[in-house]
Amino acid sequence: MSSENAIISQTKLFVGGLNRKLRGKDLRDEFSKFGEVAFARVKLEQETNKSKGFGFVEFVNPADAAKAQKAMNGQEIMGRAVKVEFANENPDKIKPLAE
Hints:
By secondary structure, the chain is an alpha+beta fold. The chain has one domain (about 15-90): RRM (RNA recognition motif) domain (Alpha-Beta Plaits, 2-Layer Sandwich), CATH 3.30.70. It has helices at about 25-30, 60-70; strands at about 5-15, 35-45, 50-60, 75, 80, 85-90. The strands form two sheets. Strands 2-3-1-6 form a four-stranded antiparallel β-sheet. A hairpin with a 2-residue loop joins strand 4 (about 75) and strand 5.
């Protein structure tokens, strides 16, 4: 997918550079201080079930996501400085609303 077709989410954040021991609950705990978190997920290797070192946090409110992105980008979580940016959504995977 080319980046020109990417849609930038207003509520979903990519969080990279995570400590490999960090889990989804830890991610939720770190980001919930900025607002209601719809979900927090650390991506895992299918074969080993070990962390890939990145994850996603989705907020209910776009303003909370913006606050979290600004405050957490470059901050340390479990001893690692993390990169936090708004996630790209794949337009082919976005489901249309039911009519």
